[in-house]
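Anyone opening a protein record will find just a pair of labelled lines. The record below illustrates this layout.
***
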Amino acid sequence: MIKKLLHLYPDAITSLKPTTDSQHIWLKDERTDSYIGIPHAQLTKEEITLLATLFPLGPRQELVRTPMAEKWYQFLIHNGKIPDSKAKNIRFIHFTIPNMHDDFQYKEWEEATKSLFSNEIIFVPISHHHGVIIEDHPKFSITEEDLSSAIEALESDFFIKIHFYLGFFQPIHQQLKHLFELEQRLLAVSLSDQPEERIMTREKVIPNYSYLNLPEHERPILFADVHQILSDDTDLTKTIKTYIENQANATSTAKQLFMHRNSLQYRIDKFIEKTGIDIKTFHGAFFTYLACLHMDA
């Protein structure tokens, strides 16, 4: 990751200790215990927010982890051995707080978050901005709906903005570290492309992740015909995208877009006629959704 940042920001510098230079944003690499300083002028506000979710921003008060949380931290971030556990299956719930203020009451927030779960969890802070919750009771796991209803209260009480990524339950094995790293990348994609979403899952992120993994030079070629049709009508991309997100339900889509159902259906039928792509089928819908993401890029 650090090598990629140095490639993206060739004026960045590395150091074992950050300086007090206000011209740089200092990010800590937990793996090497070193820092990279990126010139503040070369970063947009959105880039700073995204980087803050992936790296600690400068030195702060030392994070406190329980002995078990420390074992998981060493396994996931460094080269520690996999922790012993009585659980057969676990899942990761990643969290990130991009707008955390300096006087944030981290411990109080941690306790409030733990209280949302009906079973005991392992809370693993990775940096002051993000971490992971390890849940090991599938029968009593927190649901997306429960977490969604709790977010508003947490944000109101602590004056923060929170994002969660809900992983899926897996047996405990060595590949968990790779799963953790993949889910971290999926969360980063979500924060960049869907910043309004508070709770993400692999199902929600995979379309964006799939699009970003297409070779950049191939995208304009692959979506050329659809791109031309969508370009001729500035509102059509949103219409088609919303229709697909609503599982081709014209009534729900028309209501969401404040359109008459017949008008919506006419636009859908004309799109299918012009492109030859039936967006009422799975494959047609998936390809067209990627084409819509290409329009939004």
In short: The mean pLDDT is 87. The longest strand covers residues 89-96. Residues 150 and 156 are 10 Å apart (CA to CA). The beta strands are 13-15, 24-29, 34-39, 89-96, 122-125, 130-135, 163-166, 170-171, 199-200.
